[in-house]
């Protein structure tokens, strides 16, 4: 069964791994070239465009690779009726389903996880010209363990929707509809609260700090209302005259890897939940005719 699953999915697997390998080679070159550049302006001139395009590519890649590996996995077989052959063999439908999931999904998810780790290493010399630090969107999403976890969710969503919708294209469309809001909600609503923010009234924050909340307080630390629109002088002078300071809550850069572990764990858990739905659909929704 493993050999059959490999033969059916090898084109998607090899194409996905080829894309990952090409990006890995590019990242390796960038790391060694960028670390030899000491002038920050020259670094920005050379790699500013690269950073922008890489963000776009790596934001889209998990859902694209996950979809193209997962959606045809069962959707195409059901469309063509070839799933009947697998379900009528002595191996049983659970083994048929699980083997296809592992053979098609494991290489792609592993490759994307390694690519995310490589990008975290490759981006070290570029941090001086990367706006906002490593914790902000979209920089956080394209580095570390999260890249593989996003791919796992996209793959399991598309494979499961292929079983439920019995159609490859429908599975792809539904996957995008489910995946994009999940990424947005986690990044904007959950990630800022992975750890208690550090509060500060200083104008100088640590390098790479991610500001997640902001307010105005008086000398005693009590929240106050302040509007720059009512100032006749500069904002700084106006705030000083009213005894108001800006207080921010921020996540420091050193929490990057702990946040990566938390977010990767969250998305792996979601992927596992989707796999459970797929197992239910296999036994309750999939018919031979």
TrEMBL record:
This protein's UniProt keywords: Membrane, Transmembrane, Transmembrane helix
Record carries keyword Phosphoprotein: no
Domain of life per record: Bacteria
TM stretches of this protein: 12-32, 52-75, 96-122, 142-164, 169-190, 257-282
Protein name in the entry: ABC transporter permease
Originating organism: Lentzea alba
